[in-house]
Amino acid sequence: MKNSGRPINLCEKREISATEDSVRKMGVYGATDAKVQSGQAVAVVLPTYCEAENIESLVREIQELKLNLLITVIDDSSPDGTAKIVKKLQKEYNNILLLVRPQKLGLGTAIITAFQSILSLENQPKYIITLDADYSHNPQDIPELIRVARSGCDLVIGSRYCKGGNIVGWHFMRRLISRIANLIASTIIGTEICDCTSGMRCYSKRYVKTVLPNLHSQTYEIQIETIKQAWLQGFRVKEVPITFENRKRGKSKLTQAEFRAFLSYIIKAKIGGGVSFASELNYQDLWKFDLDREKDRVLGNLYIRPKQVS
Fold this sequence. Notes:
Layout: E1 9-11, H1 21-26, E2 33-35, E3 42-48, H2 55-63, E4 69-75, H3 82-90, E5 96-100, H4 107-119, E6 127-130, H5 142-150, E7 155-159, E8 166-168, H6 172-189, E9 201-204, H7 205-211, H8 222-232, E10 237-241, E11 243-245, H9 256-272, E12 283-294, E13 297-306
Parallel strand pairs: 3-4, 3-6, 4-5, 5-13, 7-10, 8-11
Antiparallel strand pairs: 1-2, 6-9, 7-9, 12-13
Helix pairs in contact: 6-9
C-alpha cells in the first residue's frame, strides 16, 4: 500500500461529541474519526457525480504532488461506479476518505458536508482545497493556492479572469454569460473579485470554522455565498491565475434548476441580506458504515440517507 504521507487512522463509529456540533447540524448522526497527523496540513475535497472516467487518474495525480494530503471524496451515489473506484484506491492509499450520499443533492451541500466532516476530525487540516473532479481544474495549481494561503489569505480563488487567468475550450457565448454572471455577482456582493464562480479554491481552517454556520447553499451558489461571507466577516481574499479547461470526458453537471438557484441567490443577496432556500437537507442516520481494516489503518466510509418526509 502506498503512503502519500503519515498514516491516517479512521476509527469506528462513535457517539457524537460537542466538537462535532457542526456535523450534527447537517444531520449526520454518526461520523468517522480521522487522526490527521500534524504534517497533514491540507485536505482536498472532490465532489463527484458520474466521474468514473476521471476520478482514478485525478486522485493519482494529486497523490504525486507529495504534499501529504487528506483526500475527501463526496459522491452522490454515482450510477457509473465512481465510489467503487475510490474504494479500490483506498486499498492502495491510506489518505482517502469517502462519503457516499443517497442521490444527487447539489454541489453546495456536498461542500458543506465536506467542511463539517473535516472539522469533526481530531486533528484538523489547516487548509481545505476544493476543485472539480472532471479535470477542468489542473491539480498542478494546488501548491500555488496553498503557498498564497500560507502568506496570510483565508480564501484563495483560482481565477480564470484575473490577470494571467485563461479558459480553454469554451465557445464565445458561454464565456460571455460567465463574465456577465461574475460581473453581476461581484457588483452585488461589493467586492473587486474577478472570478466569483470559480470552484478551485483554498480555504483556511479559521475561515471555515467561522462561516460554516452561515452557509446554506444547495447548488452552485455556494461559490458566491462563501465570498460574501468572507467579505461580511473581514477575511482576506486573493485571486491567483489558473487555466480552466472545459471537461473532455463525461457530461456537464450544471442543470437549468441549479442555474436558476444561482441567479436567485445573487438577487436575494442584493435585496436584503437574508437569503432563504428550499427546506434544508435533513439527514436521519447512517445508512451504512463500512469498515476495512488492514494492519495500521481502518477505513471508514459514510453512507448517508435523508429523513423520510411524511
